[in-house]
């Protein structure tokens, strides 16, 4: 119920104005967001890289409704990639891109514009020697995002995709994506989805996650296990062993600010641990999805409003 309310609020203009105008929100947001500038992104990346973690950077923004905003987002990614190169961080950090932030929902030619914009980001990433992963948004975008992924992979075979275990289609998508060189991030899924397309209970989502993991670990691609769930992380490690995978043939991923000790522990035991680091001013949708994932975060948020 709380999850549904928060996810509905994540797309409400009124709720957004209310939450953003509360100055006391900021310290809580900072738990999940690296900061608002590219300098913040570079600082946090260098701290994480310093203790052996890898990074994927998200310039925050989604559901862009005008072309100039989409272009500004591309420019922000190009600046970020140049800064990663200058700081010598490109081998440790890639970027994650939401296609809706680069034009996918624009009324005229949205998909074409998003493909063109994603291409510009991929070209720049290729020049500095790093990779790009396309985030996955709600289920109405899945076909479009996977279509754009196919086009991008023709020129940039290292572009990664995200699949969401809560969608009933995802096991089949995993079969199609688990091919040589294919980087696939498996997550549970963070949006409000109807029962016609998505499993609704945690138990069903977890079972689906394990079925998808089995397909990806047995396949020829590069699985990226994105979860903070200790049980699923342990199962992923067992399946990787059973498939005879070397530690460098798959990776674990977690979100900035969530289970940092576990992130360090996984990196220290010799696995690749990549941290998803969002930065920028458009934190509202991302922040609300993090609150929705865990009721304790809401309590933490309300407590800080009461005590700050
Ligand atoms: P859960 O069962 O939700 O959580 C397991 C445990 O992890 C919890 O008990 C708690 O201890 C901890 N935990 C989980 N979430 C939180 C939180 N917000 N705050 C504090 N503790 C928490 N979703 C998409 O739909 N599209 C994407 O492109 C996408 N990209 C992602 C990239 C990465 C690297 C990661 C890690 C997640 C991504 N997600 C994405 C979000 C994902 O779908 C889940 O919503 C999120 O990871 C929570 O699921 P979980 O697997 O951690 O399991």
Automatic annotation (TrEMBL):
Sites binding substrate sit at 98, 289-290
Q: Which InterPro entries match?
A: FAD-linked_oxidoreductase-like, PRODH_bac_arc, Proline_DH_dom, Proline_oxidase
Q: Which residues bind FAD?
A: 136, 164, 188-190, 202, 227-228
Tell me which Gene Ontology terms the entry assigns under biological process.
Answer: L-proline catabolic process to L-glutamate
Which cofactors are required for activity? FAD
GO terms of molecular function: nucleotide binding; proline dehydrogenase activity
What's the EC number here? 1.5.5.2
Catalysed reaction per UniProt? L-proline + a quinone = (S)-1-pyrroline-5-carboxylate + a quinol + H(+)
Q: From the UniProt record, give the pathway where this protein acts.
A: Amino-acid degradation; L-proline degradation into L-glutamate; L-glutamate from L-proline: step 1/2
UniProt-listed Pfam families: Pro_dh
Which stretches make up the Proline dehydrogenase domain? 45-300
Keywords for this protein = FAD, Flavoprotein, Nucleotide-binding, Oxidoreductase, Proline metabolism
Q: How is the cofactor bound?
A: Binds 1 FAD per subunit.
Domain of life according to the entry:
Bacteria
List the protein's name.
Answer: proline dehydrogenase
Could you tell me which species this protein originates from? Solihabitans fulvus
């Amino acid at each position: 119920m709380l999850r549904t309310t928060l996810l509905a609020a994540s797309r409400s203009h009124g709720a957004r104005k209310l939450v953003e105008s509360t100055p006391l929100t900021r310290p809580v947001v900072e738990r999940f967001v690296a900061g608002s500038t590219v300098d913040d992104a570079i600082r946090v990346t260098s701290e994480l890289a310093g203790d052996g973690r890898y990074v994927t950077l998200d310039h925050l923004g989604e559901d862009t409704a005008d072309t100039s905003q989409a272009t500004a987002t591309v420019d922000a990614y190009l600046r970020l990639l140049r800064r990663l190169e200058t700081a010598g961080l490109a081998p440790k950090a890639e970027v994650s891109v939401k296609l809706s932030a680069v034009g996918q929902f624009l009324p005229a030619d949205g998909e074409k514009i998003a493909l063109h914009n994603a291409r510009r980001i991929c070209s720049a990433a290729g020049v500095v020697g790093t990779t790009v992963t396309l985030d996955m948004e709600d289920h109405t975008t899945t076909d479009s995002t996977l279509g754009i992924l196919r086009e991008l992979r023709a020129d940039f075979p290292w572009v990664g995709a995200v699949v969401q275990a809560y969608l009933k289609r995802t096991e089949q998508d995993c079969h199609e994506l688990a091919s040589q060189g294919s980087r696939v991030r498996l997550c549970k899924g963070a949006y409000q989805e109807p029962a016609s397309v998505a499993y609704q209970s945690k138990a069903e989502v977890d079972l689906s996650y394990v079925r998808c993991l089995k397909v990806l670990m047995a396949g020829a691609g590069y699985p990226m296990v994105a979860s903070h769930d200790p049980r699923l992380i342990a199962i992923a490690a067992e399946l990787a062993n059973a498939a005879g995978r070397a530690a460098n043939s798959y990776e674990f991923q977690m979100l900035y600010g969530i289970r940092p000790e576990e992130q360090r522990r996984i990196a220290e035991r010799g696995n690749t641990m990549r941290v998803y680091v969002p930065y920028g001013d458009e934190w509202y949708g991302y922040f609300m999805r993090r609150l929705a994932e865990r009721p304790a975060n809401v309590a933490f948020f309300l407590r800080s409003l009461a005590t700050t």
